[in-house]
Each structure stands twice: as C-alpha cells, then as structure tokens.
Design brief:
812 residues, mainly beta, 9-stranded mixed beta sheet, 7-stranded mixed beta sheet, 2 helices, 68 strands, elongated
C-alpha cells in the first residue's frame, strides 16, 4: 500500500473547473479520493467591493462569489486552523491569521491566490488581522496579549504593542492609518488606542466589564465603536477616549458580535442559535434571524451592511438580507470536527457526527444529503444500522434514533446522564448497545425497551462492539479494562485486563477471529479463540481516536494524534500503510463494505476518503516471540522461545521484557542472539518474579534486517494454557533516539485431554489408576469418571489400565 504525501502546504489556488463537486478534490493529499465538508468556519471577510467573501476555516481559506455563492478557490498554507481573515482596502491583498497550532499570519494575492509571505512572531492564536488604509501596514492581535505591526511589502516586523493583560480579540485602523485600536476579552476587557508610528499607548478604557470582541472606527475616524459579551455598544472619542454614548441591544449571553459602520447595524449571536439585528442609532431591534440549530460562533457584515453572514457550531453558514431578514443562501458543507463515522451497507452513503449534528453524505459526489439534529447537545457518537434504515446519535444522557431516508425522529432512549461516547447496532439491526457513565446498555431498537444494563466498570465507558454473530458484546472503559458479555443473558463472560492506559475503542474483526482494543497509547490485537494477545503497537495515539476493521478482517485502521491514519496487518502485525493529510488528531475511521475506501475524520477538519491499495505493503520493524503458538509438553520438560527482530534499521541497542505465567512455567535461562554486531555488550537477563528483561548495545556498527536478539528457556510446571507477552520494548538508533517497534506475543496451548489422564499431568500412569481406585463407586460428576457414564466403576479402571499398557499417550 502506498504511503501518502506528508504535507498539505500547497501554496496555490485552484479555480472552479468541471462538475459542481470539483472543490471536494482541491488540494487533496496523495491517495485521498475526495473530501467531505469544508472545515468549520471561524471567521469571515467581505472584499471592499462586496463581490467576494472569504471564510477562514479549519482547512484553509475559502473564497466565494458573493452573488452566486459558488466556490472560487481554496487557499492552503497554514499548518492548522485559520481563525481570522481580512482584505486590504483595494481588495488586492488578503491576510489570514492561524490558531494555536499555527500562530502565523499569511499574506496572499487575493486575485491570483499566490502566497506572498509568512509573518511569524506570535506565540498563540492570531484572533484578528487588519490592513492600514494604504495597505502597507498590517496589524495582528493574538491571545498572546500583544498587538504586532508588520510591513506588508517586505514582511518586516515593525513593532510590538504591549499592555493588554489577557486575550486580545479585535483590531482596527482609523481612517488615516495613524492610530490603531485593539480590544481584549478574557482577563483583559479593555479598549486601547495606540500610535502606529511610535507604539505609544494613547489611552485605555475598561468600561465594558466583560469581554470586548469587536472594535470599528466611524467613517472619518473621529469615533471608535466597541462591543462584546455584555451586549452594550459603546462609542468613544477616538482622540481622548471619552465615552460619548452607550446603548444595550440584547439581554442574555452573547457569543458573537459584528458591527457595520455604514448602517450602524449591530448583529448579536446567542446560544439558542438566533441572530438579533439591532439598530444602534435608534436603539431598536430591527429583526431576529432564526434558522441555526446550534449556538452562533461568528458573524460578519458586507461593506454596505446589506448582507450578513452567520455561522453556527453545527457547521451551517447562512447569508441574510439585512433589510428584509430573508435568508439568501445556506452553506451546509462547513462542518466541525468529526466524532464518529459509519458507512452504509451499499457504500453509497457515509454518516458523520460533528458537534450538534449528524450528517449523511453521498460517498461518490461529496454532496451532503441530510442533517440530523441533536439540538443544544454535543454528539459524541454515531451508528448506522446495516439491516434497517436507522441512524443513531449519542449525546449527553440520551440516544436519538432517526429514519435515514426521511429524517424523522423515531425514538429517544434515555438511561444515563453520562456521555454516550460509543454506539453499535447488532448485525441483524435488532439491538443497539451504548455506553454512558460506568455502565453499558442493550436496547431493543423496535420497541425502545431497555433489555440489559451492564454496570460493572468503575470508570467511564468509551466503546462498545458486537461480534459477527451478535451474541457477544465487548465494552471498553477508562478503567483500563475490557469486559466481554453474553448478549442474551446480560452475563459477564470475562475481563481483559493488562492494558497500560485507558481503553478508548474496541472492535471485533468481521470473521470473528481477532479482537482489537485501542488505548490512548496504541493498539492491542487478541485471538478470540483463547483471548490471548497476538500483537501490540505503541505510537502517538489519542483517547479520541477510534479503530475499524476492513471487511476481509485482514487490516485494522487507527488514527493518530499526529493526524496520521495507520493500517495494520492483523496476521503479521506489520504496518500496511500510513495515510497523512489530517492536520490534527484523527478521531474516526471506517472502511467501505468492499474494503477499497477508507473514510477518516479529524478533531478539527473535514472527512477524507482514501483509496486503499493492498499491492505494496509497508514493512515495519517488529520484535516478536517465536514460535507464536506451541502446545505445552509434559510437566518437567523444557520450552525454548526466540526473541526475534524483523526489518530492523540502524539498531544500536534494545531492551525487552517477557512476562510469563509463573504458575505454569519456571525461568531456566536466557542467552544472547546474534543480531547485534560482534563485540556487542549484553546485560545478563534480569528475573523479577514473572518478568525477564533482556538488553544489549553495540560497541561498533549497528544491527540491520532480521535476526535473533535473545533466546529464553522455561521448565513446564503445569500443563495449562498461558501467554508470553512482551512489554517495555524499545529499540535505540545510532543517534540515541528511542523507537517503538511493532510487537508480537506468543501463547502456550493446553493440549487436548489424554484419555485416562485423570490427574491432568499430560501422561497416563499409576497415579491415575490410584485416583480411579480412590473414587471407585462414586456417582455424579467426577474426574475419575473416565468414560463419562456418571459412575466410577470397573469400566473406568480398565480404560486407565489399558492406556498405561499402551504406553500412556503423552500430551502433544
């Protein structure tokens, strides 16, 4: 499988060309087929002539035609989310500010999309940018409590204006460019005026008492208007800082505010999702704009005040006519980060959970087909029934079920006040499992009846999964364990312990042979036949990252904290592919039913569809215990295992710990292997109860390729099933850097019972004959009842004696 390109920094502009969904393919990483969604909207700016507007998103900067609302271009250059955007007065230049993952200011040619220069210096998110009237100076403000001034022609940093004591949220130049105003929100709550040429703070006012979010000069620059979370608009004398007037436009919590100088209109966004248009001159509400299902995040007026753009946490952008209050256009593709993904059975649709909504997408065109609302609530999980046309969404304290085709709300299941972080339909679609708080639940989908509550864990449930037959449910928890439950009775069958960190996702392979549990550190694969570990992987994972099996059970996908999607081979434990393209934590993954497409979503960006190519597997360094499975010999005999490495590169040293069952095995000895070059120094094996640690380092040269690191020998104390697990496995390269390889474990299998072996020591001898004699005449269940007829009698005695006479077949 091919490895995708490692960067999205393509400082270029793509024009609309071809069918309407062409934009879903702009600036795609290698191997990605399409993009669903455009990224959450964080800020807006209209061009001075009002013909275009820019949207700063978690993906990049989208430019739209303000009349047709068609996509003109996508600017990609920031390495994280884009928070702010502004046009120069002549419309020829565009500036953008990045959030805390990026913290840069980028300058663009607004007509051609050419990237002009990067302005680096802020140490936190750049919340607002503004051009001077002549376009030669740019002001940027940041949550690092500073205002910075830049020369736009050279990129030179001119000066830093310091004085704010908290987050700075907005900046504006006056009409002649000689002064600049900035306002502070959290911990600051002030309005400040600065001299551009000297950097002197001319005046500071703290009249708002709460966070101040916008500042704008009137047309001649004589007055400054400010407003914020208190809902009061204040007008200040720009020269003296004297408060000229103030008026209140809204009662209640305010999340977003915008002001238009030309019309004196103020737009106020609130938590329920409404936008209040208030005339600051007359102190009257002009209209209330309704339509958003979740709280408003950002607002912006067109230059003439005739249009208003609003965005909500659910991802919708709406363009309004401020004179009539009519909605002119609805953008549905600006979605927030992904919390869950699921394919439909025909692979034609994809469901994604995002903040307060669940979206259904056309997997071929990228069109958003439908939105399902969890109003005022965050959606943590989504599940799509493969047998019934039902979609489920989990939020705080409830699960909602909708009809996929009509959008009708079918039922609301309420059980626990906790977060439903995971949902799963049974294979036949009749049952729904969910986990909230410290218990999991099983529901009848048709009736909404709660069938079983499974309160066993002592910490929050993070994931639930059915096996292929639907008769077993796995539940993962932050308490570092997984429980396996019988669906019909609701009885716990076993607990899988030994995870190093909280379990955040669980899944059964479609063929039922492999089970995977993901922690916030990595991934563990288990054999379901014996529930023994087969492979473990440690890498930069995250507690929000989920896992998914391919339909053929041969591959498992997991997202990383570094934005990478990794695909592991479930048989070899090796890395089959690494897709790089997301900028932040990959939170959701899902395979299409044919296994040729993988969908992945991140914490702050759109969903990417990847073309999966199985032709070129990636070989990853692996440390394993071999043989991986062996049948236990008789008590007293010895077993020797090899600690092997495959595909090693630049190995200057290693350390590994083997954990064994001290009730079944006794450590005899450990010997060094020949992988490291001649003259290497080895630490004698360190035995600590049931742990044996090996280590070694080179003195000259390095180890490469395949070979043996060490060998370990045990004596069998009891013929029983047990596991050999590797832990704390580290490879060190010649630069002294630590590398975490893939890890493969081993198991010792209990042999099938030998006829006549009453005491279970693996052989038939006089001890077994004596045990039958002692129990002679007993009725009911008894180990000495060799033939299983319910009584210990002469038939059992004869059968054991015959086995001794035949040599007593040993365990194999």
């Amino acid at each position: 499988m091919k490895i995708a390109a490692t960067t999205l920094i393509m400082l270029a502009m793509f024009s609309v060309n071809g069918f309407a969904q062409e934009y879903t393919r702009w600036h795609l990483p290698e191997d990605a087929r399409a993009r669903l969604g455009k990224g959450a909207a964080n800020g807006f700016a209209y061009s001075p002539d009002g013909k275009r507007f820019a949207v700063a998103t978690s993906l990049g900067i989208w430019l739209y035609d303000a009349e047709t609302f068609e996509e003109e271009s996508l600017l990609i250059g920031h390495t994280g989310r884009v928070k702010s955007v502004a046009f120069s007065k002549d419309g020829g230049m565009l500036a953008s500010g990045g959030e805390f993952e990026d913290m840069t200011v980028q300058l663009w040619n607004a007509e051609t999309g050419e990237h002009l220069r990067s302005l680096v210096g802020h140490s936190d998110k750049v919340s607002s940018v503004a051009f001077s009237p002549d376009g030669r100076t740019l002001a940027s403000v940041s949550w690092d409590e500073t205002v910075r001034l830049w020369n736009t022609e050279t990129g030179e940093h001119l000066r830093t204006l310091e004085g704010h004591t908290g987050l700075v949220d907005s900046v504006a130049f006056n009409s002649d460019g000689g002064t600049v105003a900035s306002v502070g929100s959290y911990r600051d709550e002030t309005v400040r005026m600065w001299d551009v040429n000297t950097g002197e703070n001319l005046w500071t006012r703290a009249g708002h008492g709460r966070g101040v979010t916008f500042a704008a000069f009137n047309t001649d620059g004589s007055a400054l208007v400010s407003g914020g979370e208190d809902g009061i608009v204040r007008r200040w004398d720009a020269a003296t800082g004297e408060l000229l007037e103030q008026s209140r436009g809204y009662q209640g919590p305010i999340l977003a505010v915008a002001y238009n100088v030309e019309t004196n209109l103020v737009a106020i966004g609130d938590i329920p999702g409404g936008v209040v248009l208030w005339d600051a001159a007359t102190n009257k509400v002009r209209s209330v704009l309704l339509g958003h299902g979740t709280h408003i995040t950002t607002l912006a007026f067109s230059p003439d005040g005739g249009r208003l753009v609003s965005a909500s946490a659910g991802g919708a952008l709406r363009v309004w006519d401020t004179d009539t209050g009519d909605q002119k256009h609805l953008f549905t593709e600006h979605t927030d980060g992904t919390t869950g993904l699921a394919f439909s059975r025909d692979a034609m649709r994809i469901a994604s959970a995002s903040n307060g909504r669940i979206f259904l997408w056309d997997a071929d065109t990228g069109d958003r087909l439908r939105a399902f609302y969890e109003r005022w609530k965050y959606v943590y999980s989504v599940a799509l029934s493969q047998e019934k046309e039902i979609i489920a969404g989990g939020s705080d304290g409830e699960i909602n079920l909708w009809d996929v085709n009509t959008g009708e709300l079918l039922n609301t299941l309420t059980k626990d006040p906790g977060k439903y972080l995971s949902l799963a339909f049974s294979p036949n679609g009749r049952l729904l499992a969910g986990g909230a708080g410290s218990s999991a639940q099983l529901w009848d989908v048709e009736t909404g009846e709660l069938l079983h509550s499974l309160p066993w864990h002592i910490a929050e449930i993070t994931s639930v999964a059915f096996n292929r037959d639907g008769d077993t449910l796995a539940v993962g928890s932050r308490d570092r364990s997984v429980t396996i439950w019988e669906v019909e009775t609701g009885e716990r069958q076993r607990t899988l312990a030994g995870h190093k960190d909280k379990v955040v996702s669980v899944a059964f392979s479609p063929d039922g042979r492999v089970f995977a549990s993901a922690t916030s550190r990595g991934l563990i694969l288990w054999r379901t036949a014996t529930w023994s570990m087969t492979h473990t992987h440690e890498f930069g994972a995250h507690e929000n990252s989920k896992i998914a099996f391919s339909p053929d059970s041969g591959t498992i996908a997991r997202g990383g904290a570094d934005g990478t999607v990794r695909l592991w081979n479930t048989t070899t434990g090796g890395l089959d592919a690494a897709f790089q393209g997301h900028r932040t934590i990959v939170t959701g993954v899902a395979f299409s039913p044919d296994g040729r497409t993988l969908a992945s979503g991140s914490l702050n960006g759109p969903v990417l569809l990847w073309d999966v190519d199985y032709s070129s597997p990636v070989v990853r360094t692996t440390v394993s215990i071999t043989p991986t499975a062996v049948t236990s010999p008789r008590v007293g005999e010895q077993l020797t295992f090899s600690l092997d490495i495959t595909a090693g590169e630049d190995v200057a040293g290693y350390q590994a710990t083997v954990k064994f069952d001290s009730g079944a095995l006794r450590f005899v000895k450990g010997t060094t292997g020949g992988y490291l070059p001649e003259g290497a120094f080895f630490v004698p094996p360190v035995l600590n109860e049931n742990l044996v640690t090996f280590g070694g380092t080179v003195i000259g040269g390095v180890g490469k390729g395949d070979g043996q690191l060490a060998a370990i020998t045990f004596e069998v104390l009891a013929v029983a099933h047990s596991n050999l697990n590797l832990s704390n496995v580290s490879l060190v390269d010649s630069d002294g850097e630590r590398v975490h390889p893939a890890v493969a474990h081993a198991e010792i299998i209990e042999p099938p019972p030998v006829a006549g072996d009453v005491n279970g020591d693996g052989t038939v001898n006089i001890l077994d004959l004596v045990q039958v004699a002692v129990s002679f005449g007993s009725l009911g269940e008894n180990d000495a009842d060799v033939n299983g007829d319910g009584a210990v009698n002469i038939l059992d005695l004869v059968q054991v004696a015959a086995a001794i006479g035949a040599g007593g077949a040993p365990a194999q």
